[in-house]
Amino acid sequence: MTQWGTRKQEKISRKLSVKDITDNKVIPTKDIVKVLGLLIKSNDCVALEGDNQKQATFLAKALNQLNPKEINGLHMVISSMSLPEHLEIFEKGIAKKLDFAYAGPQSKKIVELIEQKKIEINAINTYLELYSKLFVDISLNVCLIAADKADRNGNLYTGPNTEETPTIVEATAFKGGIVIAQVNEIVDELPRIDIQSEWVDYIVEADEPYYLEPLFTKDPQHITEVQILMAMMTIKGIYQKHNLQSLNHGVGFNTAAIELLLPTYGESLGLKGKICSKWVLNPHPTLIPAIESGWVDNICAFGGEVGMEEYVKERSDIFFTGVDGALRSNRTYAQMAGLYAADAFVGATLQMDKYGNSSTVTKGRLTGFGGAPNMGHNPGGRRHSTDTWVDLKQDDNYLTPGRKIVIQMLETYKSGNKPIIVDQLDAVEVGKEANLAVAPVMIFGEDVTHLVTEEGIAYLYKTKTPEERKEAIAAVAGVTNLGKTATKESIIRLRKQGIIAYPEDLGIKRSDAKRSLLAAKNMNDLVDWSKGLYNPPAKFMK
Q1: Does domain 220-524 have CATH number 3.40.1080.10?
Q2: What pLDDT digit, counting tens, does each position of 295-323 carry?
Q3: What's this model's pTM, rounded to 2 decimal places?
């Protein structure tokens, strides 16, 4: 006979085991390891908040102090594997299985642990995919999250860095799991309530503030003239051509260059008000000049950005902010916005093959994808139309839908003189070695509409077959092995058909791509543009 209410009874039992240690919902800081040891059981499914930026560092360190002889085999759900502590729990045998989306700083170490059979990769997910699975086939027993402040009732204030917190809390709290929040401080009154106390089982005041990574801060002084040339081509050859208004920019200097060219080069083309007014991205400091120049109407943010807090408060017409003035970010909603509401995704990759398939998983590195596959594909479920979306139709059939713009920007060679455009992605072999069912491709070639290199633009959405796509990629692949296969005849034909365009085809002189075009050339310039509201992290001001 089926026993009902087992998860509820298990939760009650676990909470009773710590009632003599906790003060209602408050866990004494010194007792966090002891409490975790009672609330977590072997083989549990545990979510540990590790976002692109916000990290539940105190709880990650506490988790590492558990005794692997008593607690082991945990299935960890960590969206971004950013801290050494995230991997140490696997090295120690406390955890075994992993679901994640991104692992930039720890991408090499993950491969080592896979080879040592200390990590079993359940899946490399996208952010939205991972969050969705928490409501379908992953049931969390415990989630460990981070917030700015809490009151003694357990209400949480997440401030500018809400990110994924509400999603993983809801998936846990409403499925009989236990929610534990580390907070920077416990106060009598909160600036606003971001997560209500009924969803939170325990709070603990951390011994230091949670770590925030300034991931989207790019110093303009490091933007090269090659990146400026590529940005000019993108603005004139894609944004202007397709009247692009709503878009997502990924992290990188290529997109930073575009943002800093809008008030200068974009202005010279008369494009203000015609392109780039609606954004889905974090508060990029390099977007400050465009905001101050009147280019931007709206920004939907995945998370906050270190040093941008006061600027965002004073620009509430642009950002989503609460009654306290602070940013209200939400990674889940922003991923949905980037998927369905934005007309373009602009990103980069570590490798691309001859058919346009790309991946950030390379030999010796299991980086993951983050949100790129969510936003970097053409969603078949889209039904609303915009001029940009319709502009990419390639026939007059009334039943043919429009298409989302997916741009990959890459220089054909990376540091160490290694080509980025290759015959076969490393991801194919890496995936096999990690026992993945399918190759970990980030964005499939059939979804890429435009490829921008230092050589020019390939309008891949105009190609009709994989071979023609390969031919177009070769024409802008420079002196890579693929680029060397491009013939003079094919280049002439592709240019005539408008499938590729070089700078001169767009009326752009390569010699005009100078750093003098950047609206801000260093961090101090960004501070000046912000009227002193932007406070860059100290490491960028040395």
Answers
A1: yes
A2: 999 999 999 999 999 999 999 999 999 99
A3: 0.96
